[in-house]
Specification:
The chain has 735 residues and is an alpha/beta fold. Helices cover 43% and strands 11% of the residues. The strands form 6 sheets. It has a 7-stranded parallel beta sheet. It has a 6-stranded parallel beta sheet with strand order 5-4-8-9-3-10, with helices on both faces. Strands 1-2 form a two-stranded antiparallel sheet.
Length: 735
């Protein structure tokens, strides 16, 4: 167990004395104005924000800091205030590296830090301070690990042996490329089942992100593929060679190349690591509990002594082990440095009422490896969470819908109510009943924007123009033309490679069936790949060429055209084609007209979501389905203690999404699949091992199962007035 951080005394920071020790001109505003931005923070949040002070040179410096931010404790506000505080102490925003897990999170962090800093600057101007600037705060190095890695790799491409114009494959394109290599090696024609392309890519990704030997990955995660270890190793070797030949990187390569560039063969930080590390005075990492081994080692290579490093996260919300996230990164962070990093725990929850936190605290207290903390509610008391026992999944759906409608009548909108579940199919029966009862709902986790065929088509044109060696983009772009199939596309790509550029498309002998469309395609690709072609307008130019193709290929061309118009609008936010293609691949929008179904026209709707998709969200009322062993924890995760612990954290995340009301629903039996429509075959579910006595004591117990001891509603007593029958004697008499 990790000892809890000592209680911080009431805030008493002498900002005036600190101001006097800073180098002349380094602070943007005086101490009294800077203190204004701390007013809205609690004691521990302030301690995290102002961590550090003037160093020997008079500049603001700070040692390594770990902020354990419990659910709903104002993590984002604390980190944004930290960024603003650094800039107000004179730290150049260009020397701050902010690493998040989504581009939207980086944008939100920047926006909030800008607002906070502007408020403090306005206070300074109001106090008559000369030089209280009005320039907006800009953080040019705020983004995800993958996007920052891509930028740094392009900057240092010559040093690491990369083509600076390398392309980035999305997951779909990476799977297609590995499938091509798989087929070329003859692995798809084996007489025994060889893993499909998506499984092969998943094995490759897990091997890269965990750093485990291939044999361990297969044994622990993909045991049904263990017999193919040698063939998979050959496949991955050929896959890596093909990517290098095409000058493309996949999603995992962005971390792998960055990590390899920062380390020597013996594991020590490289000269490039020292160069990039010196570029930044402060490195801040959000959601550190979700980092994998590569990401943690990248951070340590940049700042081996921890100078200026602040990481924020919550070990109790580490739920992405299936993506190779390692909770050990945050649990072992302080001991990575000498002296150990300072640790501050945020445990004042601003989201939930205390009874919801009581049941969550009781659950996570069982965890074997953790930073102990007890969340307490700033909002105070409220309704106790309900543990609802129902007969089966149909009764579960009835209970949820009845309660949702009842709460709607009391003024809680459907949008402020959410139904969470461990796996997507757990909501199937509920969805059917919601449709039958005319209750609108939205289910999170649909088709990704970049998975839509028309989006992939348009991006293929831009990707091939950006990198003529990108074979995946070339094959897709060439086959947009009627009359060109896979064989002709391959010949066209090889022709371009031999000639050394896209200008050679004009000399390629296109099939007669493609003669009408070929000149326009050649003109488009030449224009897009021209060295002096400005980025502004390129997406629109490609969209105009693609419009007739769209109308020929898709019945719902109007809906898809709107997606392409949105893509053109998004492109204007990026300074270059390279940044647009990279960032869109790494962090795409989530909307799409492809297979999205009929648009939802209702003004209110219920939220359905997996727990993983719900992380970071909150609702007034939350229903958690199927809280029984086999679901919480999932039956496939019970083979190891680490898997069980992650499942416990997953249920904890589900509980802490609730602001006012929490309902944990446990069906007693589950009907088996593949039986007649009115079949009654079922199995009984066991109570979740996570529902210990302490958890049950924090819940209100609600039962919808008939009590075996209740009187018969007919009013008759069994056996009343019947003569006794000695059944035991009859059975003995049989022998």
């Amino acid at each position: 167990m990790y000892s809890t951080w000592a209680t911080i005394p009431p805030m008493s920071i002498d900002l005036s004395a600190q101001d006097a020790r800073l180098a002349p001109g380094s602070r943007v505003i005086p101490a009294d104005a800077a203190a204004d931005l701390l007013e809205r923070l609690n004691t521990r949040q302030r301690a995290a924000v102002v961590h550090g002070g003037p160093g020997p040179s008079g500049r603001f410096e700070a040692g390594p800091l770990l902020v354990i931010a419990g659910a709903g404790t104002g993590k984002t506000a604390t980190l944004a205030h930290r960024v603003a505080w650094l800039t107000l102490q004179g730290v150049d925003p260009q020397r701050i590296l902010l690493l998040t897990f989504s581009r939207r999170a980086a944008q939100e962090m920047t926006r909030r830090a800008e607002t906070i800093a502007a408020r403090a600057l306005a206070a300074a101007r109001g106090a008559g301070v000369a030089g209280g600037g009005t320039a907006a705060l800009r953080l040019p190095w705020a983004g995800t690990f993958h996007s920052i890695g891509a930028r740094l790799l392009r900057m240092h491409a010559a040093t690491v042996g990369l083509d600076a114009a390398f392309g980035v494959l999305d997951r779909g394109d990476a799977a297609d490329l590995i499938d091509v290599v798989r087929h070329e090696l003859g692995l798809s024609a084996r007489d025994r089942r060889f893993p499909r392309k998506d499984t092969c890519l998943a094995i490759y990704s897990h091997r890269v992100n965990t750093g485990w030997p291939l044999e361990r990955v297969l044994a622990q995660v993909f045991p049904w593929c263990a017999e193919w270890a040698d063939d998979l190793r050959a496949l991955f070797r050929a896959y890596v060679a093909r990517k290098q030949a095409h000058a493309v990187l996949d999603y995992d390569d962005l971390l792998l190349w960055w990590h390899s560039a920062l380390h020597e063969e013996d594991g020590r930080p490289s000269a490039l690591a020292r160069e990039i590390g010196a570029r930044f005075d402060h490195v801040l990492v959000d959601e550190y509990q979700d980092t994998n081994v590569l990401q943690a080692q990248i951070l340590l290579a940049l700042k081996p002594d921890g100078a200026g490093v602040t990481v924020v996260g919550d070990d109790a919300q580490s739920i992405y082990g299936f993506r190779a996230a390692d909770v050990g990164n945050i649990l072992e962070f302080p001991e990575r440095f000498a002296p150990p990093a300072q640790r501050i725990t945020l445990d004042c929850n601003y989201r939930s009422v205390q009874p919801v936190l009581d049941v969550a605290n009781a659950l996570i207290r069982q965890s074997e490896r953790q930073y102990p903390k007890t969340l307490h509610a700033q909002r105070g008391p409220g309704a106790a969470p309900r543990l609802v026992t129902v007969l089966d999944e149909r009764a579960q759906a009835d209970y949820v819908i009845d309660e949702v409608l009842a709460q709607r009548e009391t003024g809680v909108p459907l949008k402020q109510q959410a139904v969470l579940f461990r796996s997507s199919h757990h909501s199937d029966l509920l969805e059917v009943e919601l449709v039958r009862r005319n209750i609108p709902f939205v289910k999170h986790g649909g088709l990704k924007f970049l998975e839509a065929a028309h989006i992939k088509d348009l991006l293929a044109l831009l990707r091939w123009a950006d990198n003529p060696r990108n074979g995946i983009a070339a094959f897709r772009a060439l086959q947009l033309i009627a009359g060109i199939g896979p064989a002709t596309a391959r010949r066209g790509f090889e022709h371009v490679q031999q000639a050394g550029g896209l200008n050679a498309l004009g000399t390629f002998a296109a099939p007669a069936a493609a003669a009408g469309d070929w000149p326009g395609f050649v003109a488009l690709m030449r224009a897009l790949s021209a060295p002096g072609c400005p980025w502004a307008g390129q997406v629109e130019q490609a969209r105009r060429w693609y419009q007739p193709v769209l109308e020929q290929r898709f019945d719902d061309a109007g809906v898809r055209a709107a997606d392409l118009e949105m893509l053109a609008t998004i492109s204007a936010q990026f300074p270059s084609r390279e940044r647009f293609l990279t960032d869109l691949t790494l962090d795409p929008p989530s909307a799409s007209g492809d297979l999205a179904g009929t648009p939802l026209l209702d003004e209110d709707y219920l939220i359905l979501s997996t727990v993983h998709s719900a992380k970071g969200q909150e609702w007034d009322s939350v229903f958690v389905l199927n809280v029984a062993d086999g679901n919480f924890p999932n039956e496939y995760a019970t083979g190891s203690q680490a898997g069980i612990e992650e499942e416990r954290r997953l249920l904890y995340v589900a509980m802490t999404r609730a602001r006012n009301r929490l309902h944990l629903v446990e069906p007693q039996r589950y009907h088996v699949t593949q039986q007649p429509r009115f079949g009654a075959e079922h199995v009984y579910g066991a109570r979740s091992r996570f529902l210990t006595g302490a958890v049950l004591a924090a819940c209100e117990r609600v039962g919808r199962v008939p009590d075996a001891g209740a009187p018969d509603p007919s009013g008759l007593r069994p056996g009343a007035g019947d003569p006794p029958v000695d059944v035991a004697a009859r059975l003995r008499g049989m022998w």
